[in-house]
Amino acid sequence: MSLSVGPIQSYVPGSTWFDLTKYSSLGTQERVSINLADSNLWLIDSSDLYLPYNYAPRIAFINEGAGYQSPVSMTANGSTTGDITVFKNLSGTNSILPSRNAPLKVGDWVQMSEILAGTQLNFSVKPNGVVNAKAISLSTNYKLNPTSTSNPNSPIFWTAYADPKASKPLVLLGYEDIVGKGSDNDFNDGIIAIDVGPDNFKAIFASANLGQDATINLKDAEAVPFEMHSALGLLVMGAIALARRGGWWKHAPWHTRPQSPKP
Question: Which of 7, 19, 75, 218 has minimal Cβ neighbours within 10 Å of its Cβ?
């Protein structure tokens, strides 16, 4: 099954599939943390976006804090395969760093074609790719990314979050778009929200959830087991097993000091 993406649609308060007001503050201040627990956001492994159920995802532009004009793409591997540009230029006229001639407004979104069960999704950004088509893409599959002494988080250039208490639970992704000197490692250069459907969300949250501890080393972290009771709107926490063999996450400004996860 091939991939396709529909036209850009505008956000309409009260009728669009997500509540923009819940996420409009993400990344609006450079190099400033958010409190994950207070925001009810949980870290998840951005490289583990695996869909065990058929679904046609929806993807929204939440914000961007970069001067670059960067295409964002999605790759599917598994039952559905292919690569497609989701947003040709993730720049907004009313974003953190607005661009007068940008093609997007905060909240704009697109509908993807159906993706079959058993498909791994990866997202990538080509920094300033509208201007420099030869730029190296940075993927949620960090094994494909370069490393740099100027980037304490590399080869990881994407952070991922889950919002399990949203009426329609979403996955949020943010990226850092500079490799090497000049990077501020703030992961707000582009922020998108992804609707993968409630069943896929539960599966991702169960396998890729890393908790709310800002000291987690993403590459070595183990998932935090949870049982989700969506009908009650509750998360029942099981045993917590976090590997803390490094300090990767302490460098990421979108995170908080260590704190106890709360249901």
Answer: 7
In tens, the pLDDT along 143-178 reads 999 998 888 778 989 989 898 878 889 999 999 999
Kindly list the domain boundaries of the chain, sorted by start residue: 21-213
Q: Which residues pair with 23 in a beta bridge?
A: none
Q: Are the CB atoms for 248 and 153 separated by under 8 Å? A: yes
Residues 6+ apart with CB under 8 A from 127: 68, 70, 135, 136, 138, 177, 178, 179
The answer to whether the CB of 193 falls within 8 A of the CB of 203 is: no
| pLDDT score at 227 | 54
> Rounded CA gap, 95 and 53, in Å?
33
The number of beta carbons lying within 10 Å of the beta carbon of residue 13 is 9
The fold of 21-213 is Jelly Rolls (2.60.120)
CA 242 to CA 128: how far, in whole Å?
A: 36
**pLDDT in the model for residue 212:** 79
* CA atoms of 206 and 17, how far apart (whole Å): 23
Supply the pLDDT for residue 168: 85
Handedness of CA 177, 182, 185, 191 (dihedral sign): negative
Give the pTM: 0.83
User: % helix / strand / coil in the chain, to the nearest 5?
Assistant: 10, 30, 65
Look up residue 249 and give its amino acid: W
Question: Cα–Cα distance between 83 and 193 in angstroms, integer?
Answer: 19
DSSP sequence for 183-243: ----S-SEEEEEE--HHHHHHHHHHHEEET-TT--TTTPPP--EEEETTTTEEEE------
- Indicate whether 120 pLDDT > 80: yes
